[in-house]
Write the structure tokens for this entry.
Amino acid sequence: MDRILKRLQQYCTIEYDKSFKNLTTFKIGGIAKYVIYPKDEFSLKSILDILNENNLAYKVFGHGSNLLCDDEIYEGFIIKLTRNMSNFYFADNELIAQAGCSIISLSYKASEKSLSGLEFASGIPGTLGGSIFMNAGAYNSSMSDIIDSVKVIRNNEIVWLSNSQCQFGYRSSVFLNNPDWIILEAKLILKPGNVADIKKLMKNRQQRRMASQPLNYPSAGSTFRNIGDIFAWKLIDEIGFRGKTVGGAAVSEKHTNFIINKGNAKAKDVVELSDQIIEIIKEKYGIEMIMEVEKFNWKN
Ligand SMILES: Cc1cc2nc3c(=O)[nH]c(=O)nc-3n(C[C@H](O)[C@H](O)[C@H](O)COP(=O)(O)OP(=O)(O)OC[C@H]3O[C@@H](n4cnc5c(N)ncnc54)[C@H](O)[C@@H]3O)c2cc1C
């Protein structure tokens, strides 16, 4: 392994034995043995060559705001683009940004340029890459509304995919079925707008989030997907789970589709709580709940 790490170090910084508590917004999980920060796109390509050549597992992390990591050690490599691959620029009403950019910060930068379209994302704590991966959205808008094209490393090749090639759907995209592809960059098309109106809308969205979401606790956002026009929070409320706890995990009193970490929650607490929700809703309504939060490094 020392020889491999030495080769990798030409292309990235490596941090060792980092807790997933510091790599996710849920603040839950075991240890990531290696966390690597590629220097740039070309370095990332060389890194993937080395990892693939040696059959080593890897996973790209954005801000870890949609991830529930197991309590165990992950022996593979976590790749983070947030440090060195987070540049962006505007060209008229286009925004070209690297995958490691914070989507919240891009939405504020766009507002400063009087560009509309990213207001919905101003409270989503992910990166551009993570937001494209799951077609993040809110208030009837989603990333697919503004994506023109996405640059990815796919099967060792760098290619641009058009919006339709990304196969966006409700919280889904082609990337979910191809977890070894890495999103590098995207071109977003925004619309000229009025700064005051854009800022007003963003403030309104922020106030709605603060009023309805438990932002003072660590979480990974909505736990379950809505089912058509049935809201997941409503079903969870109806089965009497508001405030229900398992270990350090709890269904939020404020928003029942948020499972929160009330302090030192284990991944298994969250899973036990969500499994109970899935089972009871299936029994009572015959509805199959689907997790929106992604479980990572789970052995079973
Ligand atoms: C308080 C709170 C509020 C939230 N509100 C919303 C909301 O309103 N709407 C919404 O949709 N989501 C919401 N979320 C969930 C989350 O913020 C989004 O899903 C976000 O898009 C995840 O981005 P990330 O960078 O954190 O991705 P991560 O959680 O780090 O990763 C998620 C997935 O994306 C993959 N991925 C990340 N980067 C790349 C890349 N460059 N290339 C390929 N794959 C990649 C990862 O491998 C992983 O499979 C919320 C979360 C929290 C904590």
User: Anything to note?
Assistant: The helical segments are 2-9, 41-53, 103-112, 128-133, 195-212, 232-238, 267-285. The CA atoms of residues 1 and 187 lie 38 Å apart. The first strand starts at residue 12 and ends at 19.
